[in-house]
């Protein structure tokens, strides 16, 4: 891999400050999704090595938590600056392993770095409280304590920001971290470890383990010393991690699948809303938990919306993320098969295939942007998180009907409303069973906001003051026999 700083391309795991090969040199190839070529290899650690990462993190905990919040913050800010200094290399690594266009990868480095800086600051406000006492001559209150060794399983669609959103909070709170990146995209995580070391984050505090996901999760979730598990990925795997962690009752933070409705009311500028919907649908080639999964449009503007949506999506350029494109490859060929299935299922049930000629795809992992109109709740494209560049548009007649349609899913991550009517917006926003509702804008995320879902989209929040709380325990204290001139 051609980088300005070749030491950022690491192929070994990082445990206790040491670059670690798999025992017997076991490893696995990592492929460039744009062309199927091998980019490098990552170590397949065995059970003993994965357990060593917990021992290392546990060993580093006391010294890390004992630092002042400013001392931890100084190291985190050095890490943040290094991410910016090496942005071009990090973006190149990300595009090569994930496939997203280089300009999107650069955006993710900025986004990912912002969590580190933000939590370095926010940890200063991890306040406890005093409580007016109901017990004579007692002093009551709370202090915050770091939860302890924190494990993070992160996905391939955002190989860097999903790590920093979790690890920034945990490290700032005083917790040591073990990251298990997706096997498809380990190199961004390992580059982060290289930069963490340069930033002065001590050995054992930030570890990256690589290996078979099922083995790693079984060991880490089953280890009593691990006190918190955070995961971003599918609801199926999230449920598995809950089951694996139940025996030791760990803190769980889960950012799982979504099935985002994108509601377009009849009072908006149709062309603008269609442009926004195209951007909301095709970000990260549709492989995004915030992607507009079901675009629901009022009947009065429906046909015009479909026409404008088609016009805007036709302008999207598809190709290798290293070129000037809007949409890169999907992560693997299996994902292409899943996209094809969605289209077949919907058209067999009466959806109109408006656009999407797969003979134009520039490679085996590419799927051309596709539009299905007239989607209905019985279709997979309506019910499942589709994670592909297949857009589905359906029609509605009233505000009540669209809220009911939008809520008819086990998911509850993000929803979009496009309307000019403030009362209608307020009523819909309150009625939507989602953790996040974005009104007349696509841009809703960022370090200061509580990102997360309800129902089967997850548990807990990432980012914001709430994101720090995920890594803090509240300890109540009662100091008895403390006479004072005031009663409580
Ligand atoms: N919410 C998100 O950001 C997000 C990210 C990635 C994938 N997904 C979901 O995953 C679906 C398709 O992706 P996939 O085929 O890679 O899905 P998957 O469920 O097989 O895997 C998702 C991720 O979980 C990891 N994983 C798998 N088994 C694991 C285990 N036992 N322990 C720990 N981690 C494990 C994988 O390494 C991968 O990174 C999508 O439809 C989407 O719902 C969601
Ligand atoms: N797009 C999300 C990540 C989920 O896929 C984000 O903005 O954080």
From TrEMBL:
GO molecular function, one term: oxidoreductase activity
Active site: 255
E.C. number(s) listed in UniProt: 1.2.1.-
Pfam family, one: Aldedh
Class of the enzyme per the UniProt entry, highest EC level: oxidoreductase
Domain Aldehyde dehydrogenase positions: 19-476
CDD domains: ALDH_F5_SSADH_GabD
Transmembrane segment boundaries: none
Xref: InterPro entries: Ald_DH/histidinol_DH (IPR016161), Ald_DH_C (IPR016163), Ald_DH_CS_CYS (IPR016160), Ald_DH_CS_GLU (IPR029510), Ald_DH_N (IPR016162), Aldehyde_DH_dom (IPR015590), Aldehyde_DH_Superfamily (IPR050740)
Record keywords, A-Z: Oxidoreductase
Entries under PANTHER family matching the protein: SUCCINATE-SEMIALDEHYDE DEHYDROGENASE, MITOCHONDRIAL
Family of the protein in this entry: Belongs to the aldehyde dehydrogenase family.
Protein name: NAD-dependent succinate-semialdehyde dehydrogenase
Organism: Kushneria aurantia
Source taxonomy: Bacteria, Pseudomonadati, Pseudomonadota, Gammaproteobacteria, Oceanospirillales
